[in-house]
Amino acid sequence: MIIQKRTSHQGDTTHETILKNSETTNIKNNPGNDNKDQKNKKEKAIEHKKEIQKKFDSIQILLVVTILVFLVVSTYLILGPLSMIAMGMGGILLIYHLISAQSKAYSKNKTGNRGPSVFLLFLLTSPFIIGAIIAYEGYSLLESPVRIILLWAMTITFWSTMLFVPMAVFSKHREEIQPELQFYPTVSVIIPAYNEEKVIAHTIEALIETKYPKKEIIFVDDGSTDKTLDIAMQYKDKIKVLHKENGGKASALNYGLVYSKGEIIVIVDADTIIGRNSLKEMMKGFQINEHVAAVAGNIKVRNRVNAITKCQALEYITGIQIVRRAFDIFGSITIVPGALGAFRKSFLTEAGAYGKDTIVEDFDQTIKLLKAGLITQGSTKATAYTEAPNTLHDFISQRKRWYRGNIQVLKRHGDALTNPRYGYLQRLSFPYLVLGMLVTPIIGFVATFNAILGVIQGDGLYVLQVMTIFTIVHYLMSALAIRIDNEDPKLLWYAGLLVFGFKQIVDFLLLKAIIEQISNKKANLDKCKEDRSLKNFNILKIAIIVLVLSLVIPINLVYSQESKTIQVEVKYTNGDRADFYGMSLVIYQDNNNTPFLKKEMEGNPDSVTLPKDHTYKIEVYANGMYGDVGYLNLKTEQEKINISIPLSGGIQFNVFYNDGKTPVKNALVAIKSYDGTQLRIGKTNDQGDTMRYWIQSTTKNSDYYVADVYLGEIQLTSLKQIKLLPGLTKDQKIIVPIPATVQDLITVSLYKTESEKITKNDGEFSILLKDSLGNIIKKSQTNNRGEAYFSNLPSNEYFLS
C-alpha cells in the first residue's frame, strides 16, 4: 500500500486507502470460502437465466405481429398497389441494415473510401424515384406532389417500424437474461448544479441511498447565487462538495472529473432522482464488451400533472423503449443523457474535455466517443426521474435550447456522414439523426401543406387513409412501449396528441432552429437566463428588426462591396485530411498585420466568406500551435485553398518519484497548450505511464506544451517547454518529490460480504500495518462500523493483515 498526502478541495482531509490497484481496501472474512461463493454465484446466475427464459410476454409478441401485419395489409387493401412502392423501398433499407449488422461496425480499424451514407443517400433520392413511378402510372403533375410527399413519409414509417419494433422486443429479452454483476468497479457520481436549491437535497439523498458499495459522490456548485451550496454542505460528511465560479455545465463537469477517482463516471443532473438500483444496473452494460464506453439511463418524467407533461412522459417512453432499444442492439446510442449517463473514465478522458461551446454537451460527447470507434449501450432498468416543463412557455424554452444545440452538434460532426471508419454511426445512427432533426420537420410541414392541397383537389379520401394509418401505427407502437416499460396504460390516451398537436410544435421548433443555424444566429448557452429573455421575446424581436434595418439599409446604400465564399481545406504533409477539432484560422487582409478574421473551424474543408478584390494570408493553428500559412488572391477567380500542416507528434509521460525508480500510480497528467488551454487529461498506470497522446507538433520556437501532474488534488509539478516533432513519438520522464510524512487520516474498512461491513457482533478485529520486511509498524482495532484508522505515517510501501 503506497500512501500519499492528499488534501481535499474544502480543506478537509480525504480518507482513502490504496492497496495495489484498488482505490478501496476490502478485507473479506473467511477467504477460504471464496471458491465456494463463486460457484454458488454461477449456479444462481444459471438458474436465473433459465427462469427468465421461461417467461413469455405474449402481449408484446401480439402487438409486434399486429403492427407489422396492419402495416402491410392496410397499405395494400386501403391505398392500393401504388403504396406498396413505399413499403418495398422501406424493405430495401431494412435489408441493408440487417446485412450490415453482421459485421463489427464499432471497430476503429475499418477503412474505406469517403462517401455519403448509403442509407441517407437512398432516402433523400426516394422522392425522385417515387415521382418517376407516379408519372409512369399516369398521374398529372398537379396531383403528383401530394402523393410523392405522403408516400415518402410512408417509406420512412415502413423502414423505421419494421426495423425498430422487432429489435425493441429482442433488446428487452436480451436485457432480461443479462447476467448479474460479476464485479463492482469504483464509481464517481458527478452532480453539476447552478441555482437548484429547490431540488438538490432530494437528488443528493437519492444518490446516497443507492445500493452500490464502491461509490463517491462529487457535487460541483457552478457559482450558484442562491442556497444551493449551503444545502449541499449539509451532506459534506457523505459527499465531496466542490465550488467554482460560474462557467456553465460543461465547465462544472470538467472540474468534477479532475477530482474523481472512479474508473466509471456517472453524470446526474441536479433535478434528477435516480432509482436505488440504477448504479448497479448501469454497470452491467460495461460487462457486455470491453469497447463499451458509455451506458445511457432510462429517463422518466416525474411531474405528470397535465397534458404537456404527460405528452413528454409518453415521448420519453416511446423514444427510449422503441428507438433507443434498436440502437442499443447496434451499440450506437447517440445521446447518453446528462440526466443519467455512465462513462468509462479512460475513454471519456481520451475523447477530450466536455465542450464549453455547445448547448448540449451530452450529445456532443457521445458522438465523440462513437467516432473513436467505441460502443454506447442503454439500460432501461437504470431509472432516473426528472422534472419536465409543465407549461407551454417552459416547454418551448427548453426545446429551443435543445434543438439549437442539436443542430450545432450535427454541423460540427458532419464528417460522420461520409467516413466509413465510424461504423454504425455513419451507416445508421448519424443519418437517422439528420433525418429526424433536419428532414422530418421539413417533411412534416410540407406533408401538412400537401394534405390540405390534396383535400382542396378532391383527394381528401387518400389523405384521410394515410393519416389513419400513421395514427393507428403510432398508437400501437406507444402501446408496445408502455407494455415493455411496464408503464401507466393511461398515457396511451395522449398518443393522438403526439401525432396531431405536440408533433407540430416540435417540428416548428426544429425548423426554427435550422433557420437560426443557417442564418448564424447566436444560440443562448445560458439555460438560467433563457426564461427571462423569452418573457420579452416579442419586444426584443421588434427592436432587433428595427435596429438591423436602421444599420443595414444605410450601409448597403453607401457601401456594397461584393463578397465571395471560398473553401479552406487543411491536410497533413502526407496528404491525409487533418482533424479540425481544436483547429482555427487567423486571416490577414492585404498587408495589414492586424487579423481581419479569427475563426474556429467547424469542418474540414470549411467555408469562409471574404470581401473580393483583396489578398489574404491564412494561418492555421491546431491545439493553439502554429501549423502553416496559405495565401489567397480574391482579385482572381480562386475558390479554394489547400494548406498543408506538419503531422502530429506522439508523447507518453512516465511519472516517477525523485529516486527515479518508483512509479507514481494514478497520477493525473493534464496536457495544456502554452496559453493554458487544456487539451488532454489522463492517469498513470501501475508502471507510472500514461497512454500515448497524438497532438499537433510544434514548429515555432515560441510554441510548446505544458504538462501538469496531480496526485489527488495536489499539484506535484509542472513541466514546460515540451516540444513535439512531426510524425515522431517520444517518452517524457517526469520526476516528482516524495512527501516525508503523510499526516492525513487513513481509513481501512473491513467487509464480510461484497457490501456489508463487520460489526461488533461479528467479533473483535484488528488491522496490522507492516513494512516490506514484515515488521509491525502500527496496530488499530476496528470500531462498530468495521473501520480502523491510521495517521502520521512515513511515506513507504505497507501491507495490511
From TrEMBL:
The chain crosses the membrane at residues 59-79, 85-106, 118-136, 148-170, 430-456, 462-484, 491-515, 539-559. SUPFAM superfamilies: Nucleotide-diphospho-sugar transferases (SSF53448). It comes from the Archaea. PANTHER family: POLY-BETA-1,6-N-ACETYL-D-GLUCOSAMINE SYNTHASE. GO terms for molecular function: glycosyltransferase activity. The keyword Cytoplasm does not apply. This is Chitin synthase. Residues 34-45 have a biased composition (Basic and acidic residues). It comes from Candidatus Nitrosarchaeum limnium BG20. Residues 22-45 are annotated as: Disordered. The keyword Plastid does not apply. Keywords: Glycosyltransferase, Membrane, Transferase, Transmembrane, Transmembrane helix. Residues 188-348 form the Glycosyltransferase 2-like domain. The lineage of its organism: Archaea, Nitrososphaerota, Nitrososphaeria, Nitrosopumilales, Nitrosopumilaceae.
